[in-house]
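SAM-dependent methyltransferase: structure, please.
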Amino acid sequence: MERTFEDLVAEAGSVPVDGWDFSWLEGRATEQRPSWGYQRLMSARLARANAALDVQTGGGEVLAGAADLPPTMAATESWPPNAAKATRLLHPRGVVVVATPDEPPWPFADAAFDLVTSRHPATVRFPEIARVLAPGGTYLAQHVGPASVFELVEYFLGPQPEARAKRDPGIESAEARAAGLEVVDLRLERLRMEFFDVGAVVYFLRKVIWTVPGFTVAGHRDRLRELHERIRRDGPFVAHSSRFLIEARKPA
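Here you go.
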């Protein structure tokens, strides 16, 4: 039996959204993955590092997927529920999880790490990255690129021409160079996403809170109901995520 709008929205509005695990969306939404395989690249670098830092680790799920960690491994997270989840997940692996705001200065000494990683950081602090990297050290990260999921953003918020220009890999690589880093790899891809029911959209917007700032089911119920009818009539809601890989090195 086809599920009702009220049922889908109520369910998606009540499930927990802490951490960075999207398994609740299995069978309800899909997203293509970048060709470079960030998890594999990160894991290989961590296996060779002596001291590493994972910035904005979320619930620690990505870092926990690495087979081997360096002798010294730290992670930062600013949102308390995620920091608690990351602590439970990563402490058994010997990782120190530091609950700290994303604002500088970070609570680490200069040149403390030979590797800094991050997957989808909300903010990127290249001067701090450069400061905590040892000479010859590397920053390896997958960032959210420009106009990511903007089909969904603009469905709820209308045209956002200024926001479309943000998170540009050219601008961010220039910021890395301005902080004294050498950009050695930069790759951008746009990837197809499909949402098969309105509940998947609600869950996604509750979890990825910067997509539609201030999103609530109550405040967007009319547009959600229209989206429910659109998906029933036309099939999955299609959007495109934007991702770029960046690798930058601190001169030896």
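Notes: The mean pLDDT is 96.
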